[in-house]
Amino acid sequence: MTLLKELSEARGVSGREGEIRSILFRHVREHIDEHRVDALGNLIVVRKARVSAATPVPRKVMLAAHMDEVGLMITEITKNGLLRFQPSGGIDPRLLLAKKVLIGDNKVPGVIGVKPIHKLKAEEMNQVLKYEQMAIDIGVTSQSAAEGLTHVGDYATFDTAYEELGPFAKGKAFDDRAGCAVLAEILKADYPFDLYAVFTVQEEVGLRGARVAAYSVAPDCAIALEGTIADDVPKKKDVSPTSQLGGGPVLTVMDRSFIAHPGMLRHAISVAEKHGIPYQFKQPGIGGTDAGAIHLTREGIPSLTIAVPCRYIHSPVALLYLQDFEHTVNLVRETLRTLTLDIIRPES
Amino acid sequence: MKELVKKLTETYGPSGFEGQVRALITAEVQGVADEVRTDGIGNLFVLKKGRDSRHRALVAAHMDEIGVMVTHIDKDGFARFTRIGGVRPLGLPGARVVFASGIAGSIGLEKLEDRTKIPDLDKMFIDVGAKDKESCPVKVGDAATFWQPFVAQHGRWIAKAFDDRIGCAVLIEALRTMPKPAYDTYFVFTAQEEVGVRGATVAAFGVEPDYAIAVDVTTTGDTPESHPMAVGLGKGPAIKVMDRGMIVHQGLKNWMIRTAEEVGAPYQLEVLEFGSTDAMAMQTTKEGIPAGVLSIPTRHVHSPSEMVDEGDVQNSVKLLAALFSRPVSLE
Fold first, then answer.
1. Which CATH fold topology does A71-158 show?
2. Which of A83, A227, B176, B307 suits a disulfide with A178, CB 3.0-4.6 Å?
3. Complex ipTM value
4. What pTM value is reported for the model?
């Protein structure tokens, strides 16, 4: 999984996805016929129809995977040279203390400071620090020294190496570099329609890239590819794990952003069953994806979300099961190959 | 009309799963429509050609109702669930729900640690009477709605899903009874209103109407200790001035008022502090569309037993038919 490693270790918080875009373009360029980068930074690549189909098929199908990850933005440099920050995208503040980060284009290393346990009062043990109470230490002692290395507005990302732990992959930003890596694989196969693969920007701050990309592509239908929540650690109550590692690709029925197109959902399920690909449904009512923006574009675009289950997303380190990744690639590829116009046609 | 309202409210159709409502409405408008089509999100467009085809009008009522969706089946066969749209926890325990397949369930409640607090949905479950997980007839992703019969008594009607099947009924009845409309008029039965006016967001994009009116329910201020609101049951259809999602086009609103006065339909003015309607999405479509709302006063909105006044419904049909048979004035 050299591409997943490269994508996971690269840095691209919302609005600064350039590094991810370059890596992806380098990887997919030999498989595509056209490409463009739009005003917001979406990378839109086209793989033209290469085979013909026996039944009528859609003309244009859009696949979306977002390049951006969650991170921290530097908001202030203090007199002592410490960096104050705010989150970009959803980050649990409890995860931040004593984490290593890299700041700005020059990858200035830093550590999010923490009070030693020896000095914690009993009541402080039960408190969650607010973002305003934390700071990044980059090893300087003055504001001017810090200003020589970094600026307000720079992004900090988690400094996490990709590693394979037996059949699992460990790394940061699997949401949604896992989806990007799936999409890069999908571009290697042949389809009976023009495949518009869109590597989107600014998903984590409100599905912003996908909205304008879908407007310009105007596809007949779309699939968002994601790395989604697996909350499958043991629990006291018998409740949903959202999704499970090892359970195969995750299909969304309904999340906070959209309700899956019933025909496309049925089609993906029947493909999984026909090919013996394991699959699972995501816990309804949780999260949202680029499909939320895409399906409301223009006169409405039938949409679906298929995801790789990942533990600990939106944190410095996530875990995925490599076989789930392979199954997701297979399910998306076979779903596309057998997609017909009937499947996305309105029901009467 | 009572029979139509009974059929519409008793039909299953949570957001995203409006197929049964769509089929019923398609059958009901047979013979009065010039064109019927469905779009990708599930909106149903019923066109009635007008005297002047250079202009287009749009009137919308949403087909979907609030509901619940199964999130997990536990080992004993109980179904945990989430909300579809604005479902309030108060009033859920003991309510009956029904799935598309016809399977019914009762909503149960865990033993509560603190009985003074309203429990959220994670303390509840749907009991379909299954013996265990394997034999449970519903699965993750299955959607259910409240299950209540329609009741009519002394001029008041009680049912689930008046929001917004009563709007659908008013549109259908207007379609059947009105003369040829002034303009080509699209009666749009929208999908997914309760989860964020999603159907209407894409419906107006394709039709590009000169103006649009949504027909939906509004709450009232005439029940004991209710939130103060001027709207009451039995005082006629409400013409919306403002809600949380939109300020109604002034000219359109004034034209609606004048029309009500000219045809002798009682009306009341509505300012709603919570919620919005399909008109909110249509108003900001493309370059902007003058949009208004005709509201049917409804008590106990989003509960399993909502209530409307028969006279308000009849007057809504009368006003809607009058509005769309006349040339619009936006001044």
1. Elongation Factor Tu (Ef-tu); domain 3 (2.40.30)
2. A227
3. 0.91
4. 0.94
